[in-house]
Amino acid sequence: MSEYSKSFFSINSWKQRLVFWIGAILIGILISTMTLLSEWASAFYRTVSLTYPWFNFVVAPFGLGITAWITFRFFPGSQGSGIPQVKTALELPHTQEERSKLVSFRIAIGKTFLPIMGLLSGASVGFGGPAVHVGASLMASLGKAFKFPIHYMEKGLLLAGSAAGFAAMFSAPLGGIMFAIEEMGRTLEERISTLVLTAIIFSGVTAYSILNHTIYFTDNTLSLPWGKSWLAIPLCGIAGGFLGAIFSKIIVLGQSYLKRFNHPVFATAFVCGCCIALLGYFSNGESFGTGYQLAKDILLDEVTVDPLFPLYKMLATIATFFSGIPSGIFVPSIATGASFGANLASWFPIAPAPVMIL
After folding, report:
1. Which region, left, alpha or beta, applies to residue 80 given φ > 0 means left and ψ of -120 to 50 means alpha?
2. Which CATH code of 1.10.375.10, 3.30.559.30, 1.10.3080.10, 3.40.50.2000 fits the domain covering 11-211?
3. Fewer CB within 10 Å of terminal CB in the chain, N or C?
4. Burial bucket for residue 240 (CB in 10 Å: 0-12, 13-18, 19+)
């Protein structure tokens, strides 16, 4: 029997495969649960806030303050999007104790349910980063429980978990595979690489089976007529890039500023909650929640939003990020960009509006 056959049929190899595959299925289930809960929480908060406008000015500050306090008190390491923590765990050598501060089962639990608390407080929460962090944390926990070799722990399990989380959240197994290939390069041996790729597929298929959709936003087909319509490409690219640069700069500068001071967690989140409530008041509740459904409606040109909505949504997302609760920025940023594209289509009608929105 060849060396490859011995390796393939060995009990230890099958134990490793089962851990990767079962972990991937669990990630798919967990991310699907996050998605369903986020849709319910966004709709629930928006309905209640529109029925009782005063509700926002009580629940948003106190809810966000309590969520931030729970985050830092019981789930340290789960704050923010989670992608920086995963990248640090992937790129730098760590002991098991140091790595557990970045990715652990405790962090996976906090990262799953605390963003839902944020949504129930009116926050502008994204789930892309948290999904990656949940996946990496859950897979690392399984590796630790089953005493995987250190070279698996250093990259294979973390990469499989993060890419599986990405694939499950966006119903994009191919996107998860590309993410894994980009991160892996040539640093993993072939056997581990195969396990990583199969784990991504298992996770994506699990999420599809539960959520029953293969396209995260819409399958609407658009075309760009030949001629001056093509000017929409540089216009949207430059204007959108400028808006994105401002957003990123505020996030980076604000984060570095907050790190320099030992600021009170509850008070900071309370102030951020007040800002979110005020923005929700001016936007008629549109700035609350993930922005997922609104982004879909804008992409399909089924809704007209306030021209100031991109500003409201961007500021609400920034306030949510600065509050310290677990939250990503990807989907809220898409809602911001889609509404900004709708504005550009109104101001510069050089191409079909759906094209400029996209």
Report:
1. left
2. 1.10.3080.10
3. N
4. middle
Helix (H, G, I), strand (E, B), or coil: what is residue 30?
Answer: helix
Domain with CATH 1.10.3080.10 in the chain: 11-211
SS3 state of residue 326? strand
User: Could you list the pLDDT tens digit for every one of the 358 residues in the chain?
Assistant: 445 455 555 666 777 788 888 888 999 999 989 989 998 999 899 888 888 888 899 999 999 999 999 999 999 988 888 888 888 887 766 566 777 788 889 999 999 999 999 999 999 999 888 999 999 999 888 888 877 766 665 677 888 888 888 888 877 777 777 776 665 544 555 556 777 788 888 888 888 888 776 555 555 666 666 767 777 788 888 888 899 899 989 998 888 887 777 778 999 999 999 999 999 999 988 999 888 888 888 877 667 788 899 999 999 999 999 999 999 888 899 899 889 988 888 888 777 777 777 7
H helices within the chain, ranges in order?
A: 3-9, 11-51, 55-74, 83-91, 96-100, 105-119, 128-145, 150-151, 157-169, 173-184, 190-211, 232-259, 265-282, 292-299, 309-323, 330-347, 353-357
Distances (CA, A) of 132 to 93, 181, 300: 20, 15, 28
